[in-house]
Structures are given as C-alpha cells and as structure tokens.
Amino acid sequence: MSISLKGKTFVIMGVANKRSIAWGIARSLDQSGANLIFTYASERFEKSVRDLVATLEGKHELILPCDVTSDEDVEKCFGTIKEQAGKIDGLAHCIAFAKTEELAGDFSETSREGYLLAQNISSYSLTIISKYAKPLMAEGGSIVALTYIGGERVLPNYNVMGVAKAALEMSVRYLAADLGKQGIRVNAISSGPIRTLSSKGVSDFNSILHEIEEKSPLHRNTTPEEVGDTAVFLFSDMSRGITGETIHVDSGYHVL
Ligand SMILES: CCCCCCc1ccc(Oc2ccc(Oc3cccc(O)n3)cc2)c(O)c1
C-alpha cells in the first residue's frame, strides 16, 4: 500500500463479520499502518469483531459497544475513546438498518415507525457521532460514511433505506460545511452492491449483482478491498482538498 497512515488513529463503526464493508476498510487501514478502534452495535457482534481484529497486523486493543440510537451511549463511547486514545484522526461510519418488511413492496406502504427507525440508525447517527467525535479531532480529521446509489435514484425494494441514504448524503454535505472550520473533512463512499449480512435484508439482491456484471462499465462487482482502499485515500492527505463529496466505487454503474 503506497499511502502510509502510520501514527494515525481511526474509529471504525459497524464491523459485523468478515464480509462487512467495514471490515474491508479495517484491513486497508491496518495495511497502511493505522491504529484502529472498533465499535459494534450490540454484544452479539463482540466475539466476531474481537476474533477478526486479532487477525490484523497491528495491535488494535480498543473494541467497544456503541448503540447509536442512544445519545448517552454515543457520548459514553467517545468519552471512553478520549480517555484511552486521547485524539483520533478520523472515523468510518458503516452503520445502517431498516426493517426487512420495509425493504420490499410498495414504498407508499412504509410505516411511520419503520421510516423513523431507518432514519434514526442509518442517517441521524452520522450527525450525533460527529457531534461527539469532533472534540477528539482538534488537529482536523476525516469522516467517511457509506452510502448506496439507491439514495440518488429509485431502485426497486430499496425503498425506506433509499430515503435514509438520501438524508445521509445531504447530512455529509451539511456536516462538511459545518466542520470545515475545524479542519474536519466529511465524505461518503457510494459502494456498488456487495454481499454482506446486511444485503440479506434486501429483496432480490442477487439480481442486482448480475445486472452490475452485465451493465457496469467495468463489468464486474465491487469488492470490500476497493472500498477500503478508497477509504485510505479519503483518510490520507492525498484527499486534503476533498470534502462534502460522494465518491462512487461501483465499477462506474452510476454513469448509466
Ligand atoms: C435494490 C437494491 C439492491 C442492492 C442493495 C445494496 C445494499 C446492500 C446492503 C445495504 O445496507 C443495508 C443495511 C441494513 C439493512 O437493513 C437490514 C439488513 C438485514 C436485516 C434487516 O432486518 N435489516 C439493509 C441494507 C445497503 O445500504 C445497500
């Protein structure tokens, strides 16, 4: 890996298992020499995250829970990170959730509760995390969020998550505008579809993978490594002039 992130510390939020895009980001950052801190949504992920982290090159010892639907929990999580690490140089937000019944069928049937849940976890979480992370990034920093083209245009079945991703992408721009004065950059990576634990929640996911191979300019699907390497770029000084941007790592599918 040409870019070095030695001596820098990044928080990665949302590793669930070895297929997670967050794990692709973790591996690329680890290869770049970064020191990593991990947070997971609930205890049921703790063991798999700890086992995965043990396979990395670096000694990444801080692994803690963070329930992004609780202001107190987010505040506590970043209080612990401040105590243990002092400062951080950036953060990867790889967090999203919607009820499966809201990820199929007619969007007009979306429930109030399902809509707000998707927004709460998949979109507002970036804002509350940025609020509590910014004091730890006094010398500037870089925040990267994960999004999907279904937040820019309609794709069948993506429904309520598409609306949440649209809000996430606009939040990236408003956070970039706000945090720029503190030297913190905020960007999104719009990844092509990747088979993960989360993709199991989206109806007819397999057909979209096939369509990407058929129609995308590069005629191949996106890999977690490709997303991870773009994250390294966004966390490095090579992207120091970029903020408020959404970079598509999708074999070019977004141009169609
Ligand atoms: C019609 C579009 C097909 C390609 C979708 C690519 C994709 C796959 C996964 C994505 O991330 C989530 C994350 C949580 C999510 O909600 C879930 C996931 C599993 C179970 C469950 O109850 N909810 C749905 C998608 C995502 O934002 C985008």
List keywords for this structure.
binds 6-[4-(4-hexyl-2-oxidanyl-phenoxy)phenoxy]pyridin-2-ol, alpha/beta, 7 strands, oxidoreductase, 256 residues, globular, 7-stranded parallel sheet, 39% helix
Notes on the protein architecture:
The protein is built from seven helices and seven strands; from the N terminus they run βαβαβαβαβαβααβ. It has 256 residues and is α/β, with parallel strands linked by helices. Strand 1 (9-13), helix 1 and strand 2 (35-40) form a beta-alpha-beta unit. Helix 4 (112-133) packs parallel to helix 5. The radius of gyration is 17 Å and the shape is globular. It starts with 8 loop residues before the first strand and ends in a 7-residue tail after the last strand. Bound molecules: 6-[4-(4-hexyl-2-oxidanyl-phenoxy)phenoxy]pyridin-2-ol. 6-[4-(4-hexyl-2-oxidanyl-phenoxy)phenoxy]pyridin-2-ol (F9T) is lined by residues 96-100, 103, 148, 150, 155-158, 161, 193, 198-202, 205, 208. Keywords: Fatty acid biosynthesis, Fatty acid metabolism, Lipid biosynthesis, Lipid metabolism, NAD, Oxidoreductase. One of its GO terms (molecular function) is oxidoreductase activity. Pathway: Lipid metabolism. This is Enoyl-[acyl-carrier-protein] reductase [NADH].
Short description:
This protein has about 260 residues and is an alpha/beta fold. The chain has 7 helices and 7 strands, in the order βαβαβαβαβαβααβ. Bound molecules: 6-[4-(4-hexyl-2-oxidanyl-phenoxy)phenoxy]pyridin-2-ol.
Major beta sheet, specifics? 7 strands, parallel
Could you say which overall geometry the principal axes of the C-alpha atoms support? globular
The number of helices is: 7
Tell me the strand percentage band: 5-15%
Structural class: alpha/beta
State the helicity in percent bands.
25-40%
- The counted number of beta strands is 7
**Poorly predicted tracts of residues:** none
Strand order of the largest sheet: 3-2-1-4-5-6-7
Helix-strand topology string: EHEHEHEHEHEHHE
